[in-house]
Amino acid sequence: MIEFMNQALELAKEALEAKEVPVGCVFAVDGVIVAKSRNCVNLTRNPTRHAEINCIDQVIEYCMLSNIDHKAYFKKVSVYVTVEPCIMCAAALNNLNVLEVVYGCANDRFGGKTVLNVSQFYQNSYKLNGNLMADEAMSLLKQFYKGSNPNAPESKAKKKKECE
């Protein structure tokens, strides 16, 4: 498990260097990495390009090219991700019936367990374990949020007028 989370953390560091939210993800089957990615929302200008979604796409493409039933294949997938999956990613992983999700730090803004427990909406739910190398994952997030996102839209908040 530590080996896979280390890989995910390296991907998160790549995301941070690319000025993306630093989330990295690794999918493993029977102890072998089958997909890995990082967030690339800003690069692609597509808000759905989260690390987990990118890995899902890689597995689906592999299954299509190899003539493998992706529904059966996902049931063997263990997901290692640096930050608790957001509601969108948690729902997608649940819908695909992945075996388990292991995450680093909690996601108290968008978490698919912390904010809205997605598993309550599904009959089958994956095993969820958190806090694996959480300090390292949280450190990357703090570094990102100390800076500014160059691709974020300008604030629409009204600015105070200075006294003349």
Explain this structure to me?
It contains 6 helices and 5 strands; from the N terminus they run H-E-E-H-H-H-E-H-E-E-H. It is globular. Helix 1 packs parallel to helix 6. Strands 2-1-3-4-5 form a 5-stranded mixed β-sheet. A hairpin with a 2-residue loop joins strand 1 and strand 2. It is an alpha/beta fold and 164 residues long.
Share in helix: 25-40%
Structural class of the helices, strands and pairings? alpha/beta
Counting DSSP E segments of at least 2 residues, the number of strands comes to: 5
Mean pLDDT: 91
The largest β sheet comes out as: 5 strands, mixed
- Report Rg: 17 Å
Shape: globular
Tell me the distance between the termini: 61 Å
Strand content: 15-25%
Q: Helix-strand pattern, N to C?
A: HEEHHHEHEEH
| Contiguous helical run count | 6
* Strands ordered across the widest β-sheet: 2-1-3-4-5
Query: Could you name the ranges where pLDDT drops below 50 across 5 or more consecutive residues?
Result: 159-164
Compact overview of the structure:
The protein is an alpha/beta fold and 164 residues long. It contains 6 helices and 5 strands; from the N terminus they run αββαααβαββα.
List the topology elements.
Blueprint: H1 2-17, E1 24-29, E2 32-38, H2 41-44, H3 51-65, H4 70-74, E3 77-83, H5 87-95, E4 100-105, E5 127-129, H6 134-146
Parallel strand pairs: 3-4, 4-5
Antiparallel strand pairs: 1-2, 1-3
Helix pairs in contact: 1-6
Key terms:
164 residues, alpha/beta, 6 helices, 5 strands, 18% strand, globular, disordered C terminus
